[in-house]
């Protein structure tokens, strides 16, 4: 069940895993870190800025990465992806990735 705001009018007709992969790419890493920082400072960030965040992410992904991604409001099938859910998953993976990298010991 999609938990995005307002039935997610900016659902992506793409598989969630593909969107997560795109968000974790080198080209989108700075944008992903921006949203991680925003959510770290304000856990309710997506509650108030969900629609604008979703539109921005969809636009960036379609322009930079995959012009075949389609915006739409019908998330009835399991193959459709809510971009906000993909964002949260990408942030979790980024956190895990960075926490599993051994820290250099300074002498």
- Total beta strands: 3
Give the number of helices: 4
| Helix share bin | 55-70%
Describe the strand arrangement of the main beta sheet, using strand numbers.
2-1-3
Mean pLDDT: 76
Measured between the Cα atoms of the first and last residue, the distance is: 50 Å
How many strands, which pairing sense, and closed or not: the largest β-sheet? 3 strands, antiparallel
- The residue ranges in which pLDDT falls below 50 over 5 or more consecutive positions are none
Which percent band covers the strand fraction?
5-15%
Structural class: mainly alpha
Evaluate the radius of gyration: 15 Å
User: What is the total number of structural domains?
Assistant: 1
Shape: globular
N-to-C series of helices and strands: EHHHEEH
